[in-house]
């Protein structure tokens, strides 16, 4: 019985490129578009039903890793500059978000949250105050 001559095709393993946990939706979409526009073959893993899996973008071909990393690094640098300029513009116009502005915008929510916080603090410290008194 002759032995079979099997050749193993060499191909690269998937490589995690970009973690999506905590990434704003607009940034994740920009990264997807950037990869597609530059013909970088990737796939995405979701967080799963309970959010315990790692949502990420993965490269199918690790030979594209250096190019993809350079593109994402440039995008991130540009994004930081763009968001900083937008923040500075809003601040000059007096439209930047502040704590006081948030309270003025949602006073009822502020009162409810403050009451909940006060109740938690009271209930957490009540047993210790009873010991001392």
Produce the secondary structure layout.
Elements (H helix, E strand, L loop, with lengths): L14 E5 L5 H13 L4 E4 L10 E4 L5 H28 L6 H7 L1 H26 L1
Antiparallel strand pairs: 1-3, 2-3
Helix pairs in contact: 3-4
Binned, the helix content reads 55-70%
CATH level-3 fold name of the largest domain: Alpha-Beta Plaits
The largest sheet, given as strand count, sense and whether it forms a barrel, is: 3 strands, antiparallel
Query: Which structural category do the helix and sheet elements fall into?
Result: mainly alpha
Strand adjacency order, main sheet: 1-3-2
Shape designation: flat
- CATH H-level superfamily of the largest domain: Hypothetical protein rpa1041
**Count of helical stretches:** 4
Q: Which CATH-level-2 architecture of the largest domain?
A: 2-Layer Sandwich
Number of strands: 3
- Low-confidence region ranges: 5-9
Total individual domains: 2
- Report the average pLDDT across residues: 88
The helix/strand order is EHEEHHH
- Alpha-carbon Rg, integer: 26 Å
**The level-1 CATH class of the largest domain:** Alpha Beta
Report on the structure:
- The protein is mainly α.
- It folds into two domains: 9-95, 2-Layer Sandwich (Alpha-Beta Plaits); 97-133.
- It is built from four helices and three strands; from the N terminus they run E-H-E-E-H-H-H.
- A three-stranded antiparallel sheet has the order 1-3-2, covered by helices on one side.
- Helix 3 crosses helix 4.
- The longest helix has 28 residues, at 65-92.
- Residues 5-9 have low confidence and may be disordered.
